[in-house]
């Protein structure tokens, strides 16, 4: 029994060391992966309006499982947003004023394209199809996940850790302890996020 306990302690120490190596600072330049003006779309004067619109369009495209929409469908979604919420204010860019819902939708589309959120391509029938860039999909999905963090998920993590420890099998201890370690790190990160 002492030998089993000693092996388990050794595995915990190894798992901790492995984790320390994973936490080394990485030299990562975000702007090697996304355009320099990417965040301009959601940080400018109309940031709240733009963020609501991008999520509305994104969720429609996500429901297609392809993260694509026909350009006309995308413009309709944006135009419907303006009509649905009685957004009668005009939008302005470079001295030009946009008052109709369709013109405002076209402006939003153009800004999304200029800032690198979307790209378009031609379908077989020469219809313009709008594609969300891979990095856009990753960023928007991450932002949606932040909103989904809830107590059920945290309770589930705690129970999984407890259950793994309670049913620890010595012959699989390394694998189980590695999983417990990763789950514990994830739980701590989620708790810290809730605290901030």
Describe this structure in words.
The structure is a single chain. The chain is mostly helical and 196 residues long. It is built from seven helices and five strands, in the order ααβαββαββααα. The strands form two sheets. It has a three-stranded antiparallel beta sheet. It has a two-stranded antiparallel ribbon with strand order 2-3. Helix 1 (2-22) crosses helix 7 (173-195) and helix 6 (151-166) runs antiparallel to helix 7 (173-195). The radius of gyration is 24 Å and the shape is elongated. 13% of the residues are buried.
Describe the secondary-structure layout.
Elements: H1 2-22, H2 47-63, E1 68-70, H3 71-84, E2 91-93, E3 96-98, H4 101-114, E4 118-122, E5 128-132, H5 134-148, H6 151-166, H7 173-195
Antiparallel strand pairs: 1-5, 2-3, 4-5
Low-confidence stretches: 1-15, 20-24
Indicate the radius of gyration in whole angstroms. 24 Å
* Alpha plus pi helix count: 7
| Strands side by side in the biggest sheet | 1-5-4
| Helix-strand string | HHEHEEHEEHHH
Distance between the termini: 43 Å
> Averaged pLDDT, please?
80
The main sheet comes to: 3 strands, antiparallel
Q: Which structural category fits the helices and strands?
A: mainly alpha
The geometry reads as elongated
Number of strands: 5
Fraction of helical residues: 55-70%
| Binned strand content | 5-15%
Keywords:
5 strands; mainly alpha; two-stranded antiparallel sheet; 196 residues; elongated
